[in-house]
Amino acid sequence: MKYIIAVVLIAAIGGSLFGYDQGVVSGALSFFSVHFKMTQAEIGFVSGVLALGAMLGCLIAGWMSDHAGRKPVMITAGALFTLSSLLLALSPSVSYLVAGRILSGIAIGMASTIVPLYISEVAPARIRGTLVSANQLAFAIGMTTVYIVNALIANLNISSWNIQFGWRFMFGSGVVPAIIFFVLTPFIPESPRFLFKRGKSDKALKILTRMNGEATAEEESKAIQDQLHHENKGLIRELFKPGVRFALLIALLAAAFQQLTGTIAVGYYAPIIFQKTGIGTNASLIETIGIGVVKIIFVAIFMVYIDKLGRKKLLTWGAFLMAAALLALALIFSVGKFNMLMNILIMVGVLAHTAFYELSWGGGAWVIISEVFPTSIRGRAQSLSSLTMFLASYFVSQGFPMMLNGIGATWTFVIFAGFCLIMMWFAARVLPETNGKTLEQIQSDFTHKNAKQVTVTKEGVTK
User: Fold this and answer.
1) How far apart are CA 294 and CA 289, in angstroms?
2) Closest to 136 measured CA to CA, from 252, 322, 306, 4
3) Which of 14, 198, 246, 317 is least surrounded by Cβ atoms within 10 Å, i.e. has the fewest?
4) Strand partners, 455
C-alpha cells in the first residue's frame, strides 16, 4: 500500500500543476496587462488561448500514450510545464506571453488526460475511485497554493514593483513543482496494462504483483491478456463496436456535464458577491483562497466515500444538491436587495455549490472517464473525453457573460440548475455502477454480446 500511495502521489503532481497553471493568471493578469499596456482583446486572448492549447495537448496525449506509453506523456508534460513557466516569467512581449500560455495549455491537456488514466490502470479495483480522485485533490491543492503565492507576492510589494516584476515571480514559481514532477516521474513504473499491450508480460506481471499481491496479480493478468486478445487495433473501428459506443457516450456526456454544473458561473460571480458583504479590497483574495480551502476539504471527503457509496449515488445526489444551491442563488438574486443577511445567504450558497461539486462531479467525472474504455484505445479515447471537457469549458466561459447581460443573473442560474437536474437523471438512470470492478470487468459489461451486455431501458440500465 505504501508503494501504491507513493506512485499515485508522484503521478498526482501532474494534477497539481494543472491547477497551478490554471490559477496563476488570476493574480498575474492585473499586473502584466498594465506592464504591456494590453487592450481588452489582447487580455481576452491571453486568458482564453490556454483552453485552445489544452485541446491540442489532449490529442497529443491520447496518441502518444497508446504508442509510447503513459510515462513518456507525463515526463513530456513535466518538461512543458517547466518551459512554459520560464517563458511566461521571462516574456519580453505579449507574443511571448501567448506562446507561453499555449505551451502551458498543451501541458495541461496532456496531464489532465494521462494522470487519471495512469492512476486508474495501476490502482487496485477496491480503491480505484479513491486513488483516481487524488488527481482532483492535487488540482485543488495546486490552485489554492498558487492563490496564496500570488497573494503573498502582491501584498508584500508595492504596486509599481508588481507591475514590473511581481507577475514574473508568480509565473516563475511554477517551475518548482514542475521540476519536481519531471524529476520524480521516471522513477514510477509504466502502466502494466500498456506493457501487456506491448507484449512485455513478465515486466507487467511484476508490477501488478507489487501493486496487488501475487494471487490477485495472476488473476488480473489473465483477464487483461484475454481482453487484449479480443480487442481490435483500429481506433475508429474499436470505438464503434457494440457496447464501446455506449462507453464513449457515457464518457463524453460526463465530460460535458462537468462543465455544465454552473461552477464557472458561481466562480465568476464570487468576487462580486464577497465584495457586497463588506469584506473590502481584499475580497477577491479571501474569496479565491476560501473557495480553494473548501475545494480541498470536500475533495478529501469525496475520496473517502467514492469507493464506499459508489459512483451513481454520489453523482446523483451531488447533481440534485447543486441544482438546489443554484436555484437558491437565483431566488436571492431575483429579490435584488443586498443587505447583510442576504449577502451571508449568498456566500453560503456559493460555498455550498462548490462543496457539492467537489463531492460529486468535480472528481467523479474523471473517475468515470478513466474506467470505461478498452486498454487498446484507452489513451486516445480518454483524450477525446478530455477534449470535450475543455471544449465545453471554453464555450461556457465565453457564453456566460453574454447570458448575464442578455437574461440576467437569476435566469442564468436557473438554466444551470436545469442542467444539474438533467445530470441527476443521467447519473440515476443511465450511468452504470463501476464501483469495485476491475477495468476488464467493466469493459466486459460494456462490450460482451451476451447476457452481461449493457442495455438502456425505460427503467434504466440493466445487464
Assistant:
1) 9
2) 306
3) 198
4) 462
Q: How far apart are CA 3 and CA 7, in angstroms?
A: 6
Which of 77-91, 125-139, 318-332, 369-383 shows the lowest per-residue confidence on average (mean pLDDT)? 369-383
Count CB atoms within 10 A of the CB of residue 78. 26
Quick one: pLDDT at residue 269?
60
Provide the 8-state DSSP code for 39.
-
Side-chain half-sphere of 448: how many Cα atoms within 13 Å?
A: 13
In a 10 Å sphere around its CB, with 0-12 CB exposed, 13-18 middle and 19+ buried, how is residue 18 labelled?
Answer: buried
* CA distance between the termini of the chain: 33
Q: What is the CA radius of gyration of the chain?
A: 22
The rounded distance, in Å, linking the Cα atoms of 452 and 444 is 8
Q: What integer pLDDT is reported at residue 458 of this predicted model?
A: 42
Cell of 411: 435566469
Contacts for 351 with CB less than 8 Å, ≥ 6 apart: 290, 291, 294
Phi, psi values for residue 456, rounded to 5°: -105, 125
